[in-house]
Structure formats: structure tokens, C-alpha cells
Amino acid sequence: MHKMIGRVLLFILFVSVLAFPLLETGAAASKVYKVPVENVVEKGLYAFLQRSFTEAEAAGAEAIILEINTPGGFTDAADQIARLMDDSDLKIIAYVNNKAMSAGAFIALHADEIYMSSTATIGAAQVIDSEGNAATVKAQSAWVADMITAAELNGRKPIYAQAMADPKVDLPKYRAGVGDLLTLKADEAKEVEYSEGTVASFKELLKVTGLENAEIISTNETFTESIARFITHPVVVPILLSIAGLGFVLEMYSPGFGVAGTMAASSLALFFYGHLVAGLAGYETIILFLIGVVLIVAEFFLPHGIAGVIGTLAIIGSIIMAGGNPMYMAISVLIAVAIAVIGMVIIMKFFGKKLHLLNKVVLMDTTDTESGYVSNVNRVELLGRIATTSTALRPSGAIELDGERIDVVSEGSYIAKGIHVIIVKVEGSRIVVRESVEKGEIK
Fold first, then answer.
1. Is the Cα torsion angle 231, 236, 241, 247 positive or negative in sign?
2. Would you say 183 and 197 are in contact if contact means Cβ atoms under 8 Å apart?
3. Of 181, 271, 273, 410, which one has the fewest beta carbons inside 10 Å?
4. H helix or E strand, kind and range, residue 8
5. In which residue ranges of the chain is pLDDT below 70?
6. pTM exceeds cut of 0.70
7. How do residues 235-248 score in pLDDT, each as one tens digit?
8. Which positions ≥6 away from 63 have C-beta within 8 Å?
9. Which residues are within 8 A (CB) of 110 and not within 5 positions of it... i.e. 6 or more apart?
10. What is the rounded CA–CA span in Å between residue 162 and residue 117?
11. Residue 192's pLDDT is what?
């Protein structure tokens, strides 16, 4: 009996030893995705986060930790990211390890939980335009409402979110009196319940959130995503379009296809590549652009200029459609056009260049005398020669000179047939003669 019990215990011990690694593995089977939210918030960041969220959901992750360090960015991109977060079934934790300003604060407020490092800050979310000035009342009002909604989404007091975006809110205790925007330090954010806690490191964050045994999977931007984020940056877009416009202008003043044309084509290719990778442009924009190019090329073979106009509008339309914000893209196009026009004026004014490209479309030659074109042969060699009238001149008629019959007119008086005359004027086909008193040639 004792032997039987001993064997059973030994078997249980043996099975336990075998099962222990499996239990360890099962405990660590949960996955947490660590996703950086860095630099300017724009559409390229949204594309990267969209991929990261898709991967996390496909892997069955337990949570996503957004490691936030951003000065802010564009509200339309922040709104897309916030919708992405709201639509996800995963737990989302915002870890502000440095600063979550403006659009970064808006993104953090859409997380289920917020944790901050001891030196981190969050806030200062007023909308500004492209020139650094406060946005219109309408845009500002909409953004304040969005900030309040983001705070209420996870049960946070909306007054602080409002103070981050609206300088009229008076919170002097947190250095945000009337005229100032609210920016909370880590301890202040915890005090007003805009943070679940302050942690010293990412490792401590995992511990306080109960995720210390999870497998941490860090996602980073791919090379193409990094390029796309750079290309779709709000400052880079008008620069690329301006280079394309200026390159096209230079190409018009250059014979053949050279560096300027390559520069323009490369800029446009980069523009569409970046927006395609970022998920902002679809293939329909590429098709519309190519249709525009085909129509402009067809202009070289078709009359009236209609194809060229439609082609130009198609290209401009495709560029505006490629961006997420049509108004911003329209402004970028206007900037590019203005720079191209200035470049054209400079080239024509200071360098005296002629449009080589238009020579293929517009007839540039003139049929003037200076270019060697005449409607009739101007026989100036007849001036001063003596001839004989072969008909009476009334005042027009004919003369004979060296056996050649020539139509002439007299200076006005009647001249009979067989009279010697001198040629006094040659104006194209009009030859004027006067009666001569002697036969011979005047030298």
C-alpha cells in the first residue's frame, strides 16, 4: 500500500515537472504591442498606427501601449487616429514619456488609461493655422468640443480638456489664467485624474498595469513608412509641388528633355508615392493624373487648346484629391503655381529666354522682310536703267529692256509708245518710270 502511494506521488511529481514549463509559457502567452507616437501628428503617422493596430488585433494582443512624445500636429490626422483608437476592441494605454501637446493630448485622452513619466507634460491644445495664428472661431469651437468629448469618453472632468484648448477658461492654480492654455505636469495630471499614475520607466508601467509577464512586441516604422511620413509632412508637400512647378517652367525654356524635366517628374513621383503609401491617395488619383498628362501631350497634335486645359485641370484635381485635406492641398498648389510664375518672370525678364516647348505648339516664325521673306521679287537692279516703251503709258503700260517686257507705270504723265524712259523707283512689283531725254544708262 505504501509503495502504491509512493508511486502515485512520484507520478504526480513527474507530471508537475513536465507541466511547469507549459504553465510558464501559458502565463507569458499574452502579447502587448508597444507603438511609438513621435514627432508631428500627420497623416503618415495615422497610416503607421493603422498597420500597428491591425497587427496587434490579428495577433490577439491583450493591450496596445502608445508611447507618446509629440509637440502636436494636425487636427484632421489626430481625429483619424482617435477614431482608430475608439474602434479598437483592445485595451489602449497612453504612456506619455516626455510630452503630449496639442494633438498629442487629444490622442492621449482617447486612451483607456494614461500614465506619465515624472518629467512629462500634457496639454496646450489650441488650434493654430499654417501661419502660426489662432484658427477661426468656427474651427476653434469645433476643436474645443472635440477635446471635451475626448475627456468625457473615459470619465475625465472636461473642464481641464477645455482649458487646454480654450484660453478663456480660468484655472490660475495650474498656471492657466484667462489668456493662457493649460499644460499639466505629471503630478498635476494625476491630481485632476488625467493620469492613472506616474512611473519611472516602461518596465514600471508594465508592472503597475499588470502586464509584466506579457510578451512585448515593439512596432516601428518601415523605411517606406518613414519616407511617406516625410513626404506627406505639411511643410514638405508645398516644397515638392513647387519644385515640380519650377522644374516644368525651366523645361519649357530648355531644348529637349533634361535635368529640369527630370526634377519635375521626380518630385511628382515622390509626392504620389508618399501619399499612396500613407493611404491618403488611391489609384484613382494616379489614373486621373495620368489622364491629365496624356491630354497635355495630345495638345501638341490637337487644335484649339481644349485638351491642354482639361489635362491641366485633371492634374491639379488629382493632386488635391491625393491629400487628406483638400483646402490645405489647394493652398499648396497655389503656392507652387505662384513660385512657378515668379520663376517664369525671372527667366524671361533677366535671362531673355524663349519658350522652346511652345515652338512645337505655336507657329513662331514671321514672314517679314528682315527674315528674308518677300511677297514679290524686289528688282532694285533696274534702278536708273534706260528702256523703251513698248506700249503707251496711261499711266500704266509696258517697257522693253534687254529683250524683256516689264510692266510699269509712269510718274503720272502720258508717255507714247517708242519713247525712251528711265526707271526711277522700284517698290516690289511696282516699277515707276519717267521720260528720258537721251538714250543710255545713268550711272
1. negative
2. no
3. 273
4. helix 2-27
5. 1-29, 128-135, 253-257, 279, 303-305, 324, 351-377, 438-443
6. no
7. 888 888 888 888 88
8. 32, 33, 90, 91, 92, 93, 209, 211, 214
9. 81, 82, 85, 86, 92, 150, 153, 154
10. 23
11. 95
Query: What distances in angstroms separate CA 291 from CA 48, 285, 312, 315, 361, one per listed residue?
Result: 30, 10, 10, 8, 20
Distance of alpha carbon 360 from alpha carbon 297, whole angstroms: 11
Question: Would you call 64 helix, strand, or coil by DSSP?
Answer: strand
Inter-residue contact 63 to 211 (CB < 8 Å): yes
270-301: per-residue pLDDT in tens? 888 888 777 677 778 888 888 988 888 787 77
| Cα dist from 255 to 46, 244, 343, 358, whole Å | 43, 18, 17, 11
What pLDDT digit, counting tens, does each position of 415-436 carry? 899 899 998 888 877 899 988 8
**Of 268, 116, 126, nearest in space to 194 by CA:** 116
Dihedral in degrees, nearest 10, Cα atoms 317, 321, 327, 329: -80
Q: Residue 275 contacts by C-beta under 8 Å, 6 or more apart in sequence?
A: 228, 231, 232, 281, 285, 322, 323
Is the CA virtual torsion 414, 416, 421, 425 positive or negative? positive
d(CA 390, CA 61): 114
The per-residue pLDDT for 119 is: 94
Contact between 111 and 92 under an 8 Å Cβ cutoff? The reply is yes
Give which of 119, 101, 123, 107 is closest to 174, Cα–Cα: 123
pLDDT at site 77: 86
Q: Could you give the count of Cα atoms lying within 13 Å of 155 in the half-sphere of its Cβ? A: 5
